[in-house]
Amino acid sequence: MAQPGFVPPSSADFFFNPAVGSSILATKPVMLLLFSVILISAFFIVSARKAAVVPSRLQFAGEMVYGFVRDGISRDVIGEEFQRFVPLLFAIFTFILTNNLFGVIPLMQFPTMSHIGFPVSVTIFVYVVYHFVAIKKKGLGRYLKEMCFMPGVPKPVYVILAPVEFLTYFAVRPLTLAMRLFGNMFAGHLLLLLFTLGGQYMLKSALFVKFFSILSFGLAIGLSFFEMGIQCLQAYIFTLLAALYIAGALADEH
Amino acid sequence: MSQNNERALWSILAYLVTGLLVWGAIGYGIDKWVGKHHYGIIGGLVLGLGSSLYLAWLRFGRE
Asked: ipTM, 2 decimals?
Protein backbone atom coordinates (compact mmCIF):
# COMPACT_ATOMS: atom_id res chain seq x y z
CA MET A 1 0.00 0.00 0.00
CA ALA A 2 1.94 2.96 -1.27
CA GLN A 3 -1.08 5.11 -1.80
CA PRO A 4 -0.42 8.74 -0.98
CA GLY A 5 -3.21 10.20 1.12
CA PHE A 6 -5.37 13.08 0.10
CA VAL A 7 -3.45 16.35 0.10
CA PRO A 8 -5.87 19.13 1.05
CA PRO A 9 -5.48 22.49 -0.68
CA SER A 10 -3.57 25.09 1.29
CA SER A 11 -2.41 28.64 0.94
CA ALA A 12 0.49 27.29 -1.10
CA ASP A 13 -2.00 26.72 -3.93
CA PHE A 14 -2.41 30.48 -4.21
CA PHE A 15 1.15 31.03 -5.38
CA PHE A 16 2.09 30.54 -8.97
CA ASN A 17 5.41 30.26 -10.70
CA PRO A 18 6.16 33.09 -13.11
CA ALA A 19 5.17 32.29 -16.68
CA VAL A 20 8.37 33.76 -18.07
CA GLY A 21 11.60 34.61 -16.28
CA SER A 22 11.60 34.89 -12.52
CA SER A 23 9.87 38.23 -11.98
CA ILE A 24 6.85 38.35 -9.71
CA LEU A 25 5.24 40.54 -12.38
CA ALA A 26 4.89 37.55 -14.67
CA THR A 27 2.71 35.52 -12.30
CA LYS A 28 -0.93 34.68 -12.86
CA PRO A 29 -2.55 37.20 -10.48
CA VAL A 30 -0.64 40.13 -11.94
CA MET A 31 -1.46 39.08 -15.47
CA LEU A 32 -5.13 38.68 -14.56
CA LEU A 33 -5.02 42.15 -13.07
CA LEU A 34 -3.62 43.65 -16.25
CA PHE A 35 -6.14 41.73 -18.29
CA SER A 36 -8.97 43.03 -16.13
CA VAL A 37 -7.88 46.63 -16.72
CA ILE A 38 -7.77 46.06 -20.48
CA LEU A 39 -11.11 44.28 -20.38
CA ILE A 40 -12.88 46.98 -18.38
CA SER A 41 -11.44 49.80 -20.49
CA ALA A 42 -12.31 48.08 -23.74
CA PHE A 43 -15.85 47.30 -22.60
CA PHE A 44 -16.69 50.82 -21.53
CA ILE A 45 -14.94 52.49 -24.47
CA VAL A 46 -16.82 50.31 -26.94
CA SER A 47 -20.12 50.66 -25.10
CA ALA A 48 -19.88 54.45 -24.93
CA ARG A 49 -18.30 55.22 -28.29
CA LYS A 50 -21.43 55.19 -30.38
CA ALA A 51 -23.61 56.65 -27.68
CA ALA A 52 -27.09 57.25 -28.97
CA VAL A 53 -30.34 58.48 -27.49
CA VAL A 54 -31.82 55.09 -28.16
CA PRO A 55 -29.06 52.91 -26.70
CA SER A 56 -27.79 49.74 -28.28
CA ARG A 57 -27.74 46.65 -26.15
CA LEU A 58 -24.07 47.13 -25.28
CA GLN A 59 -24.51 50.78 -24.43
CA PHE A 60 -27.45 49.85 -22.25
CA ALA A 61 -25.35 47.33 -20.35
CA GLY A 62 -22.55 49.86 -19.79
CA GLU A 63 -24.96 52.55 -18.69
CA MET A 64 -26.69 50.18 -16.34
CA VAL A 65 -23.48 49.49 -14.42
CA TYR A 66 -22.57 53.16 -14.42
CA GLY A 67 -26.04 54.17 -13.35
CA PHE A 68 -26.02 51.64 -10.54
CA VAL A 69 -22.79 53.03 -9.07
CA ARG A 70 -23.73 56.67 -9.64
CA ASP A 71 -27.33 56.60 -8.42
CA GLY A 72 -27.52 53.47 -6.31
CA ILE A 73 -24.32 53.95 -4.34
CA SER A 74 -22.78 57.36 -4.86
CA ARG A 75 -25.78 59.69 -4.86
CA ASP A 76 -27.76 57.85 -2.23
CA VAL A 77 -24.88 57.71 0.22
CA ILE A 78 -22.83 60.85 -0.34
CA GLY A 79 -25.61 63.29 -1.23
CA GLU A 80 -25.00 66.73 -2.75
CA GLU A 81 -21.33 66.45 -3.59
CA PHE A 82 -21.52 62.95 -5.03
CA GLN A 83 -20.51 63.90 -8.57
CA ARG A 84 -16.83 64.33 -7.64
CA PHE A 85 -16.52 60.79 -6.32
CA VAL A 86 -18.36 58.90 -9.01
CA PRO A 87 -15.23 58.18 -11.11
CA LEU A 88 -13.38 56.78 -8.11
CA LEU A 89 -16.25 54.63 -6.89
CA PHE A 90 -17.05 53.47 -10.39
CA ALA A 91 -13.43 52.45 -10.98
CA ILE A 92 -13.27 50.62 -7.65
CA PHE A 93 -16.52 48.79 -8.27
CA THR A 94 -15.77 47.59 -11.80
CA PHE A 95 -12.18 46.75 -10.92
CA ILE A 96 -13.06 44.62 -7.91
CA LEU A 97 -16.08 43.03 -9.58
CA THR A 98 -14.10 41.94 -12.64
CA ASN A 99 -11.19 40.63 -10.62
CA ASN A 100 -13.52 38.74 -8.29
CA LEU A 101 -15.46 37.18 -11.12
CA PHE A 102 -12.23 35.81 -12.56
CA GLY A 103 -12.54 33.32 -9.72
CA VAL A 104 -15.35 31.39 -11.40
CA ILE A 105 -14.71 32.05 -15.10
CA PRO A 106 -13.41 28.83 -16.62
CA LEU A 107 -9.71 28.75 -17.55
CA MET A 108 -8.93 31.76 -15.36
CA GLN A 109 -10.49 30.52 -12.13
CA PHE A 110 -8.49 32.61 -9.77
CA PRO A 111 -9.86 35.61 -7.90
CA THR A 112 -7.08 38.17 -7.97
CA MET A 113 -8.32 39.68 -4.73
CA SER A 114 -7.47 36.50 -2.84
CA HIS A 115 -3.93 37.84 -2.64
CA ILE A 116 -3.94 40.31 0.24
CA GLY A 117 -1.78 42.83 -1.62
CA PHE A 118 -4.48 43.71 -4.12
CA PRO A 119 -7.29 44.58 -1.67
CA VAL A 120 -4.75 46.46 0.44
CA SER A 121 -3.70 48.67 -2.45
CA VAL A 122 -7.30 49.47 -3.34
CA THR A 123 -7.96 50.22 0.33
CA ILE A 124 -5.00 52.60 0.47
CA PHE A 125 -6.69 54.70 -2.23
CA VAL A 126 -9.92 54.86 -0.25
CA TYR A 127 -8.05 55.56 2.97
CA VAL A 128 -6.09 58.47 1.51
CA VAL A 129 -9.17 59.87 -0.19
CA TYR A 130 -11.49 59.95 2.80
CA HIS A 131 -8.91 61.44 5.13
CA PHE A 132 -7.81 63.96 2.51
CA VAL A 133 -11.39 65.03 1.81
CA ALA A 134 -12.10 65.52 5.51
CA ILE A 135 -8.88 67.41 6.24
CA LYS A 136 -9.41 69.64 3.22
CA LYS A 137 -12.93 70.46 4.28
CA LYS A 138 -12.52 70.85 8.03
CA GLY A 139 -8.82 71.31 8.65
CA LEU A 140 -6.74 68.77 10.53
CA GLY A 141 -7.46 70.14 14.00
CA ARG A 142 -11.21 70.30 13.64
CA TYR A 143 -11.30 66.89 11.94
CA LEU A 144 -9.48 65.21 14.81
CA LYS A 145 -11.50 67.10 17.38
CA GLU A 146 -14.82 66.10 15.85
CA MET A 147 -13.57 62.55 15.51
CA CYS A 148 -12.34 62.00 19.04
CA PHE A 149 -14.34 64.37 21.20
CA MET A 150 -18.05 64.07 20.90
CA PRO A 151 -20.02 66.71 22.73
CA GLY A 152 -22.20 65.86 25.66
CA VAL A 153 -19.77 63.64 27.50
CA PRO A 154 -18.17 64.38 30.87
CA LYS A 155 -14.51 65.28 30.39
CA PRO A 156 -12.81 62.32 32.14
CA VAL A 157 -14.73 59.88 29.94
CA TYR A 158 -12.85 61.18 26.90
CA VAL A 159 -9.78 59.35 28.15
CA ILE A 160 -11.65 56.10 27.55
CA LEU A 161 -13.48 57.05 24.38
CA ALA A 162 -10.92 59.03 22.38
CA PRO A 163 -8.50 56.14 21.67
CA VAL A 164 -11.38 53.95 20.54
CA GLU A 165 -12.65 56.62 18.14
CA PHE A 166 -9.20 57.41 16.85
CA LEU A 167 -8.31 53.82 16.11
CA THR A 168 -11.69 53.15 14.53
CA TYR A 169 -10.98 55.80 11.93
CA PHE A 170 -7.29 55.20 11.39
CA ALA A 171 -6.79 51.46 11.82
CA VAL A 172 -9.93 49.35 12.05
CA ARG A 173 -11.79 50.83 9.09
CA PRO A 174 -9.07 50.26 6.47
CA LEU A 175 -8.11 46.91 7.98
CA THR A 176 -11.63 45.52 7.94
CA LEU A 177 -12.20 46.90 4.45
CA ALA A 178 -9.19 45.05 3.04
CA MET A 179 -9.56 41.92 5.15
CA ARG A 180 -13.25 41.45 4.36
CA LEU A 181 -12.60 41.36 0.63
CA PHE A 182 -9.45 39.27 0.95
CA GLY A 183 -10.98 36.79 3.36
CA ASN A 184 -14.10 36.21 1.30
CA MET A 185 -12.17 35.65 -1.90
CA PHE A 186 -9.54 33.47 -0.25
CA ALA A 187 -12.01 31.26 1.57
CA GLY A 188 -14.26 30.96 -1.46
CA HIS A 189 -11.45 29.88 -3.71
CA LEU A 190 -10.16 27.43 -1.12
CA LEU A 191 -13.61 25.87 -0.87
CA LEU A 192 -13.85 25.38 -4.62
CA LEU A 193 -10.34 23.92 -4.66
CA LEU A 194 -11.23 21.51 -1.88
CA PHE A 195 -14.26 20.06 -3.64
CA THR A 196 -12.56 19.88 -7.02
CA LEU A 197 -9.40 18.25 -5.69
CA GLY A 198 -11.46 15.98 -3.45
CA GLY A 199 -13.51 14.81 -6.43
CA GLN A 200 -10.37 14.22 -8.42
CA TYR A 201 -8.86 12.18 -5.61
CA MET A 202 -11.96 10.07 -5.18
CA LEU A 203 -12.07 9.43 -8.92
CA LYS A 204 -8.65 7.84 -8.66
CA SER A 205 -9.67 5.65 -5.69
CA ALA A 206 -11.58 2.39 -5.44
CA LEU A 207 -14.69 1.81 -7.53
CA PHE A 208 -17.10 2.33 -4.67
CA VAL A 209 -15.50 5.68 -3.81
CA LYS A 210 -15.52 6.80 -7.45
CA PHE A 211 -19.28 7.03 -7.21
CA PHE A 212 -19.05 9.74 -4.56
CA SER A 213 -16.82 11.93 -6.67
CA ILE A 214 -19.96 12.93 -8.58
CA LEU A 215 -21.26 14.49 -5.38
CA SER A 216 -18.03 16.38 -4.86
CA PHE A 217 -17.86 17.70 -8.40
CA GLY A 218 -21.54 18.59 -8.25
CA LEU A 219 -20.97 20.60 -5.09
CA ALA A 220 -18.01 22.34 -6.70
CA ILE A 221 -20.21 23.45 -9.57
CA GLY A 222 -23.02 24.49 -7.26
CA LEU A 223 -20.67 26.42 -5.05
CA SER A 224 -19.24 28.18 -8.09
CA PHE A 225 -22.61 29.82 -8.63
CA PHE A 226 -22.85 30.60 -4.95
CA GLU A 227 -19.38 32.14 -5.16
CA MET A 228 -20.49 34.31 -8.05
CA GLY A 229 -23.10 35.84 -5.78
CA ILE A 230 -20.56 36.47 -3.06
CA GLN A 231 -18.14 38.02 -5.52
CA CYS A 232 -20.73 40.53 -6.71
CA LEU A 233 -21.80 41.21 -3.15
CA GLN A 234 -18.24 41.86 -1.96
CA ALA A 235 -17.57 44.29 -4.81
CA TYR A 236 -20.78 46.09 -3.86
CA ILE A 237 -20.01 46.18 -0.14
CA PHE A 238 -16.49 47.45 -0.72
CA THR A 239 -17.79 50.30 -2.88
CA LEU A 240 -20.64 51.03 -0.51
CA LEU A 241 -18.29 51.28 2.47
CA ALA A 242 -15.89 53.50 0.54
CA ALA A 243 -18.83 55.78 -0.20
CA LEU A 244 -19.96 55.68 3.43
CA TYR A 245 -16.50 56.66 4.67
CA ILE A 246 -16.34 59.54 2.21
CA ALA A 247 -19.83 60.62 3.25
CA GLY A 248 -18.77 60.52 6.89
CA ALA A 249 -15.73 62.64 6.09
CA LEU A 250 -17.87 65.25 4.34
CA ALA A 251 -20.66 65.36 6.88
CA ASP A 252 -20.86 68.23 9.29
CA GLU A 253 -21.43 66.40 12.48
CA HIS A 254 -23.16 68.03 15.41
CA MET B 1 -33.14 56.73 6.15
CA SER B 2 -32.03 53.30 5.02
CA GLN B 3 -28.62 54.70 4.14
CA ASN B 4 -28.38 56.10 7.63
CA ASN B 5 -29.18 52.71 9.07
CA GLU B 6 -26.54 51.12 6.90
CA ARG B 7 -23.98 53.62 8.08
CA ALA B 8 -24.93 53.01 11.68
CA LEU B 9 -24.65 49.26 11.22
CA TRP B 10 -21.10 49.35 9.87
CA SER B 11 -19.94 52.03 12.28
CA ILE B 12 -21.26 50.15 15.29
CA LEU B 13 -19.54 46.98 14.14
CA ALA B 14 -16.27 48.89 13.83
CA TYR B 15 -16.75 50.41 17.28
CA LEU B 16 -17.36 47.04 18.88
CA VAL B 17 -14.18 45.60 17.38
CA THR B 18 -12.05 48.62 18.19
CA GLY B 19 -13.26 49.06 21.76
CA LEU B 20 -12.44 45.47 22.63
CA LEU B 21 -9.10 45.63 20.82
CA VAL B 22 -7.87 48.89 22.33
CA TRP B 23 -8.81 48.33 25.96
CA GLY B 24 -8.22 44.60 25.80
CA ALA B 25 -4.69 45.28 24.58
CA ILE B 26 -4.10 47.89 27.27
CA GLY B 27 -5.40 45.50 29.92
CA TYR B 28 -3.23 42.72 28.56
CA GLY B 29 -0.23 45.04 28.66
CA ILE B 30 -0.94 45.87 32.29
CA ASP B 31 -1.18 42.16 33.09
CA LYS B 32 2.18 41.53 31.45
CA TRP B 33 3.67 44.45 33.29
CA VAL B 34 2.34 43.50 36.73
CA GLY B 35 2.72 39.84 35.90
CA LYS B 36 0.48 37.89 38.29
CA HIS B 37 -3.21 38.05 37.59
CA HIS B 38 -5.56 38.27 34.65
CA TYR B 39 -7.69 41.08 36.04
CA GLY B 40 -6.16 43.58 33.65
CA ILE B 41 -7.41 41.95 30.48
CA ILE B 42 -10.80 41.17 32.02
CA GLY B 43 -11.24 44.74 33.16
CA GLY B 44 -9.93 45.99 29.83
CA LEU B 45 -12.40 43.93 27.81
CA VAL B 46 -15.31 45.02 29.98
CA LEU B 47 -14.24 48.64 29.71
CA GLY B 48 -13.75 48.28 25.98
CA LEU B 49 -17.17 46.77 25.42
CA GLY B 50 -18.72 49.43 27.61
CA SER B 51 -17.01 52.23 25.73
CA SER B 52 -18.02 50.82 22.34
CA LEU B 53 -21.63 50.53 23.36
CA TYR B 54 -21.54 54.00 24.88
CA LEU B 55 -20.02 55.42 21.68
CA ALA B 56 -22.60 53.68 19.52
CA TRP B 57 -25.33 55.15 21.69
CA LEU B 58 -23.75 58.61 21.60
CA ARG B 59 -23.51 58.61 17.83
CA PHE B 60 -26.67 56.85 16.79
CA GLY B 61 -28.96 56.40 19.74
CA ARG B 62 -29.41 59.92 21.01
CA GLU B 63 -31.81 61.43 18.49
From this structure: 0.81
